[in-house]
Amino acid sequence: MQTALIALSIALIVLGPETQAAEDASAIVVTGCPVSLIDESQVPARAAGQLIEINVVEGRAVKPGELLGKIDDAVLLRNKDVKQYQLQAAEKEAGNDVNVRYAKWANMVADAEYQQAVEANQQATGAVPQAELRRLLLERGKTALAIEQAQHDLEISALNVNVRRAELQAVEQELEMYQIIAPIEGVVVKRFFHQGEWVKPGDTVFRIVRMDRLRVEAMLSAEKYTAAQLDGARAVLSVRLPPGAERSFEGQVVFVSPLVDVGMEFPVWAEVENVRDEKSGHWLLRPGLSGTLTIYPNP
Fold first, then answer.
1. Phi/psi zone of residue 232: left (φ > 0), alpha (ψ -120 to 50 degrees), beta?
2. pLDDT tens track for 155-164
């Protein structure tokens, strides 16, 4: 109580009594405002198989990306090993230019033999028969084309590395489907399967609810308030918690409905910051409770 009085005194000094009084006078107070979730996730299995790991239980706080469970992926792991070996083999093949170097040497020899035969005929006509010259010329052309073929094969080997790498990545992505990952930060409130049970794609395995921020809903009169007054305005939720102490939660208005119902009222949503109990660590504000929402309209 003493702390609250000190805080109030400081606020009056900083804001001034006139400012504080004006703010309180314009405040909108709505009772019986329900508290609900902003975000929750029904976390599904993305692959068929047996659940071999369950890493969380109800009540456990989780972070985005945390591993909640795992489906049997033994076969895929072996397939991943195969793809890794195939990629290594393809990389070795792509780095092997022996055929290119051999084809170049063979072409050099074939060219030298042809030139030698031509020079022999220049020195002594008919020393090398024309049929042999044509064969040597063909061999020189054949080895020249062999160079191009060897270079082409090396290029294909390099492309095959990309194919093998893509195949490995595909298996790795498929392995991720066998992991059940938390998509949001929150608390696990329901576990629908147990370790050893069979799941199929789409089966909900866990339910996670976000508790650090909660939504408060109120209905306001369209004849008294405008959207400009409310959008982004400061809001404070007061809730009476067991064993009877009242607790306030700070927040702001995040949604003002553009629709007005037949009673000339429209819904307004405020999001408030939740607080943990200092001793137990449990969240104080829970969906399903209701309280008094005080909104301080924009000037």
1. left
2. 999 999 999 9
